[in-house]
Amino acid sequence: MVDVFKAMQVMSRIGKPPKFSLTPSEIIFREGKTKLLRYLPKTRKTAPVPVFLVPSLINKYYILDLLPAKSYVEFLVEEGFAVYLLDWGVPDDADRAVTLEKYIEGFLANAVSEVLQLEKSKKVSLVGYCMGGTMALIYAALFPKTVRNLILLATPVDFQNRSLLSVWANEKYFDVDRLVDTYGNIPVSVLQNAFQMLKPVKTFTRYVDLYENAANAEFVETFLAFDYWANDQIPVAGETFRKFVKDTFQQNLLINNKMKMGKRIVDLGKIKSAVLNVIAEHDNIVPPESAEAVMDKVGSRDAEILKVKGGHHGITIGTSAQTVVWKKTSEWLKKRQE
Known about the structure:
Rossmann fold; eight-stranded mixed beta sheet; alpha/beta
């Protein structure tokens, strides 16, 4: 039986900032809107190869550091890694011409250089989530000498697949030039509506789940934190969006080693680092076949797939994340520190 008064109290918190308790960090580098976070270590010694987290460009980074006990960042810090994360920031009208090349060959590459210098290390372990995984993959192909390990979390690589996003972004139906030329930066509303329409019924029924679980404190706090994050989206720089959509969804250049960054070709075969590809079996944003396709393209001798139950976001904060993904990625990294 639902306690109606309790349920109404819980429902009144929807859309309000939850009680975040982010893992302690310091900003050690800034460029443009980006900020490089260094998480304060909790162990006397840290592993030799620093971990560099690359979040998605269309969502804020704190999905990887959502709540105490629901934080991949906190877990890695407690496991004894030196952990860094690139916060992409929020672009404004002045950033509409910022390119994908600038994000990867500029902001990301410069931030990695800062970490290598600070840690006195030759290489990093890159961990990319969703679009951040795609960007980490591109970086690893362009700068292979700086990457010891590459972990891909729910990362799209083959963009012509069975997902609705792939259908909607097809150049037959989607004029990306017109959208970018009209808006400049891609508004939050455009992106948010697209993702909500992937599961239109769930967009509404999820609040029924919250109502019915109002007495479950852990469920409530996780739900409200995730819901706030999901609605706390950011616009995407227009020129970055234009190139990403054309080169991936519409022409599928990345998986075919034909994508260009400036004058250079992104050749996935140049990736020699160890690769762990973490795939969610029920991912409606990145179907398993989209993520799996990269395994035949990388030049790594040490490459494996980890398939887990759950969906796109569950891979970072869900039950599978806490019981399988976090532990497995930590163990995998610890074996690859030389």
